[in-house]
Amino acid sequence: MGRIRFAPIVELPEDLQVQTPFNPKGVLISGNTYRTVDLNLNENFRTIQNPAIRNPNDPGWDRFNWGEQAVKLSERGNWLILEYGDLVDHQDSLRHLIGVWAPHSYPGRQPPVVVQITPNTHPPDYPTDGLPFSGIYPYGCTPRPGKKPDEKTGKFALHDCGQHYVELNSKRSFGQFKIVYQLYSARPDIFEGPNGPIVITLSPAALRTGSILREPFTHREGMGRLIAEVLRFLWSRKLTLDTSIGSTKLRFQESKIKIEGIRPAVGAIGFPKSTLTTVVCHSAAVGPVLKLAGHASNEKMHFVETHKEGTKIIKKTREFPASLWGGPNNYCESHWKNLWVIDGVGQPGNIGVPSPGSNTVKTWKSWLNSKDDRRIVFVYTPAGLGEKVEAPPELVRLTNPRISGKAGWIEEGFNTKVSWLRMDHTYLRVQNPLVPNGIHPEFADIKSDGKITHDKIYEFGVGYAARFRR
After folding, report:
1. How far is CA 233 from the centre of its chain?
2. CA distances (Å), 433 to each of 90, 139, 439, 462, in order?
C-alpha cells in the first residue's frame, strides 16, 4: 500500500510559445487552482426524478419530473489530481493519472465511492505514448480544436493548448458533464454540508500501437486495490474523514502541494474496511466495465500490447503483479453495489448493447444476481440502443410503456433491482437551449445531431441513476 501521490504541478505563462505535443512534466496550474477548474461556481442543478415521465408535449423541463438544488463545491471538499502506480522511476515504471473528488466527510459508516470509467481516448486531442510512459501521457499538451499555430514559428500559445488527459477528469466531474454536481443535486438527503461522495475518475492512456491501456482496472482486484489506495491516501492526509469536524484546503507553493486546515489532532487509524461502491460508464466505456463485471476476482491481471513489424504481428504481455496492483479485497467485489450504464455502446460491433438474449445481458444479469443487494440503472438514447430494440425482459419490463409527444418518445421501467429509462434524441432538445437561464444541465439545441445528445444524456443520466443508489 502507499502507491499514490499528488501529480507534480507547474505554472507557466499562458502566452508561452510551445511546439506540440508539449510536455510540461506536470499538471498546469493557475495561481492556487488547477487550470480550467473553478469550484467556486454556485450551480442551480436539476435532476430527473422517479418516475421520470411527466408531459412529453412540454417545450422544456416539465417533460420530466424533476428536482432542483443549488450546489457550490468549494466549501465541501477538494479536487485532487493524483498519480497511481510505481513511485520510484525505473525502466518499466508505470503510473496512471486519476482525478479524485474528496469530500471533507461522508454520511453513514461506509463511504460512498463512485468510480467513473471514461470513454476511449484517442488522437489528435489525446497524444499517444508508449510503455513505459514518457510523460506525454498524461501531461502532454495539444492544440484545442480550431486553434492555429503562429505563421512564422509554427508554435502555439500555451493558452491555445489543452492538457487533455488531465482535463478529461475535470471535464467529466465539473465541466461539461458535471457528475459531481449531479450526485449532490440528486441526493440532498444524504449529501449535505461537508458530507459527500468520493468520486474517482480514470484517464486511460492512448498507446502508439492503437490500444488503450485500461488494465489493471478491468479486473476486480485491480479496481479494488485502486479504491483501497485512494482511501488510504485521503485518510492518512485527513482530506476525507468520517467526522465533519474541520476541513482542509490545498495550497500550491511553486512545485509543492501543501494541505492546510483544521482537523482532529489524532487522525483515523487505518482507513475504511468497507464501502458502498458504484461504477458508472458512458459510451464506449461500457466495454471495460463489461470485462470488470465478467472477470472473476482471482483472475490474472495482464495487458497484451499488439503491433506490426513489417508483416509480422508482435505481441508483448505486461503483467500486473497482485502484490503491486491487486491483492484480496472487497472494495470492488462484495462492496460493489451499484452499476450505472449511460448510453453504453462500443464499436465495432455494438459492444455492450443490452439487446434481449445477448451476451451483454447475460453478463449484467450474472453480476446482478451474484449478490442480493446489487442494482443496475440503464439510461439510453438511440445512439446507444436502437429505438426498435426492446428492453431486455431478462432484466426489466416497462412499467411506463413508450409514450410519444411533441418532445419525442420516452419509456421507463423498474423493479427492485433494475431501473430503465430510454428516450428519443429529440427528448433532450429544445428550441432555445438557454431557457430557463442559469439552470443546469442545459438541453441541446433543436438542430443538434445524435452525437450531441449521446453526450447530453450523460449530463442528465447520472443524476437520475443516483436517485436509485443503495
Report:
1. 19
2. 51, 34, 10, 20
What is the C-alpha to C-alpha distance for residues 37 and 459, in angstroms, rounded to an integer? 18
Count Cβ atoms below 10 Å from residue 19 Cβ, excluding itself.
11
Q: How confident is the model at residue 88 (pLDDT cuts 50, 70, 90)?
A: confident
Strand 33-34 to 17-18 pairing: unpaired
Q: Give the closest residue to 440 by CA, choosing from 190, 191, 186.
A: 186
List helix spans (H) across 216-332: 220-236, 286-294, 322-325
Question: What is the rounded distance in angstroms from the CA atom of residue 105 to the CA atom of residue 242?
Answer: 5
Cell output for 327: 491483492
Supply the pTM of this predicted model: 0.96
C-alpha cell at 146: 480550431
**Residue 3 Rama label (left phi>0; alpha psi -120 to 50; beta):** alpha
Give the span between the Cα atoms of 222 and 326, in whole angstroms.
Answer: 5
User: Which set of grid coordinates corresponds to residue 141?
Assistant: 499538451
> Can you list the positions of beta strands (E) in 26-168?
27-30, 33-34, 42-53, 64-72, 77-85, 95-103, 112-117, 142-143, 156-157, 161-162
Q: What are phi and psi of 23, to 5 degrees?
A: -110, 105
Instruction: Characterize the bridge pairing of strands 418-423 and 439-440.
Output: unpaired
DSSP for 6-20, written as a single string = EPPEE---TT-EEPS
Q: What are the distances in angstroms from CA 146 to CA 44, 142, 143, 199, 451?
A: 31, 12, 8, 32, 19
The tens digit of pLDDT for each residue in 374-429 reads 999 999 999 999 989 999 999 999 999 999 999 999 999 999 999 999 999 999 99
Nearest Cα to Cα of residue 405 among 14, 53, 1, 25: 53
Query: Alpha helix locations (H) across 30-78?
Result: none
Quick one: cell of 466? Answer: 443516483
- State the Cα angle at 259 between 254 and 263, rounded to 5°: 165
Strand, helix or coil for residue 258? strand
